[in-house]
Design goal:
There is one protein chain. It contains nine helices and 14 strands. It has helices spanning 8-14, 69-78, 98-107, 119-125, 155-164, 175-178, 214-225, 240-247, 262-269, and strands at 5-6, 20-24, 41-43, 47-48, 86-90, 113-116, 130-132, 152-153, 168-171, 198-199, 206-207, 210-211, 231-234, 256-259.
Length: 273
């Protein structure tokens, strides 16, 4: 079993535990509309993790860009997160943006962080307690960011890898986007793929908003397991690459990382002839 993925029942048992902090990481993506009846609902005692604005580098021209450790630390403390907090993250789309937040915490050196399998829809389906979303202030936490750069890749890393090919880039966008058969969602962004990358759509690890079975994932990742290279996951803007990264936890022994800028950055910076 994946040690970083928890069930609704597991979280329900921990709901009133003092050092457990639940974060609503829902990203209001225009392509992913949450059902109207759950848009203003959160898991009881959840705190809103603003991935798009507070936990992204807004000076970067690309969306949801990796924040500095100091920014991340300050915003995490403002949410009342402590160095010893056990963090459970979820989103209203089942599984979409929550793995990005899980990966961010891991990259900032925090190990006690978990993703709720199935997110808010799963929680509601089990009849566990919810409440209306409200703005809240929290006592400042003592969270400390301790950067773990090994699981983060930047543009230069991926560009240099074109020559060395020491790492295998796995693009998790849809097959049509990977093959340049459809326009990219971002206005003005060219279609295409990173040279020498391969394609495994992230949707293959999900089934109705939850992760597929371990047997299914083992079969899916077998070609990567046979690769004797580190894996770098890439997507459109660094969100769904983290879904794939999380799905491979406990299955792939290869070293793994996420290309933060992903195709949004690559397609903008690397022009074709």
């Amino acid at each position: 079993m994946n040690p970083s993925i928890v069930s609704a029942s597991w979280l329900s048992d921990k709901l009133n535990t003092e050092n457990v902090i639940i974060l609503d990481c829902t990203l209001n993506n225009q392509l992913l509309k949450q059902p109207l009846d759950i848009q203003n609902i959160q898991i009881k005692n959840a705190r809103y993790f603003d991935l798009k604005f507070k936990f992204s580098d807004l000076s970067d021209p690309f969306p949801t860009a990796y924040p500095s450790p100091s920014q991340f630390e300050e915003e995490a403390q403002a949410l009342g997160i402590n160095a010893n907090s056990t963090i459970v993250v979820y989103d209203a789309n089942g599984i979409y943006s929550s793995p990005r937040v899980w990966w961010l915490f891991k990259s900032m050196g925090h190990q006690e962080v978990y993703v709720l399998n199935g997110g808010l829809p799963e929680w509601i389906s089990k009849g566990f307690p919810t409440e209306t979303k409200t703005e809240s202030n929290y006592s400042e936490g003592n969270f400390k960011a301790n950067l773990n750069p090994e699981i983060v890749r930047r543009f230069d890393d991926v560009f240099n890898n074109l020559t060395t090919q020491k790492e295998l880039v796995v693009d998790v966008r849809s097959e049509d986007r990977f093959n340049g058969l459809v326009k990219e969602p971002r206005e003005g962004l060219r279609s295409g793929q990173i040279d020498n990358s391969i394609n495994i759509p992230y949707t293959k690890v999900l089934n109705n908003g939850k992760f597929e079975s371990e047997d299914h994932l083992k079969q899916l990742f077998k070609p990567l397991k046979d690769e004797d290279r580190p894996i770098v996951f890439s997507c459109g803007s660094g969100i769904t690459a983290c879904v794939m990264y999380l799905a491979s936890e406990g299955i792939l022994k290869n070293k793994k990382a996420v290309y933060d800028g992903s195709w949004t950055e690559w397609g903008d910076k690397v022009k074709t002839e």
